[in-house]
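Service request form, structural biology core

Requester: graduate student, group of Dr. S.
Request type: structure prediction, single chain
Budget code: on file
Notes: please return the result as structure tokens.

Sequence provided:
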Amino acid sequence: MFRAAGLPVANSVVANRRKAAVEHQLTPPYVIKPVSEGSSVGVFIIRDGDNRPPHALTSSEWNLGDEVMVEEYIPGRELTVAVMGSKEGGLRALGVTEILPATGFYDYDAKYAPGGSRHVIPAEVPDVVMHESMAMAERAHTALDCRGVSRTDFRYDDSGGKNRLVVLELNTQPGMTPTSLVPEQALYQGMSFRALVRWMIEDASCGR
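Core staff response, request fulfilled:
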């Protein structure tokens, strides 16, 4: 649906999980992720030079299902944009945050553990990237016919003179914990947590 809306996405294939655990489905580096999970549970990064995919992909620790997405690894920076509203009632992108995990990967602990990551808002990126990220997040929100609050995640590759911005995914139920990104972006726009929750409830009750 993002491709159909003209949004840039990573090249990817959907593969059988057990097959992806024994042979490369793409040339490394690439990422393996569940098609129906969240919070980076069951995500693996296969680095350039790795001889094989991880055996852990077959672990029963996670309920990953039979299929996984295998997607090109995009180097660069992690950006995210929250959007409020709907295409009928009007949209509002709140800002652009850069996520700087304490480790090399924005995994479950980086998302939820205190000190697991640092959030920079507004992200220190060129103005054109700032505006493009917010416009793409609104287009992604509209492409999936979302309403209420969503959060779209991006990779921004500015290495070697590149200027590549790619949509990774859209979160239809973004986190609302003390370390979450949507409340931070709302506060950046002058909206308290209490006001944000009130808006979400009132917006949902209107049925727009």
